[in-house]
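Entry for the shared binder. Reason: the reviewer on the internal report wants the predicted structure included alongside the sequence.
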Amino acid sequence: MQVNWATTKIQCNGDIGPVKQVMDVGTNKVEVVNEFIYLAVCSIYDGSSESEILRRIGIARNCMTLLEKYIWKSHIWVEAKFRLYRAYVFLPKFYVLIANMMRAEFRQA
């Protein structure tokens, strides 16, 4: 297995003061970043989640716009529209609600 140095990034967690933009790792130069997306989650050096929340709001807004344009205003059966709503809107919202409740319980424990 080989490391792909062209796509490898370094992120320092916490506020440690000024950091170089590029660091040397052996003979390779690696870019230092403040945030990056890994496994569909935006990781930020200070641990905040504001940009991740804003990114997901943007994705949800785009999804709802597409649903409005291609589903709700289309001429498909109402039953099919409700099935699509349950699959693509209700269930993901329900999953997020359950995940947030579990995180809150975990933090309290």
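Summary line for the report: The longest strand covers residues 28-32.
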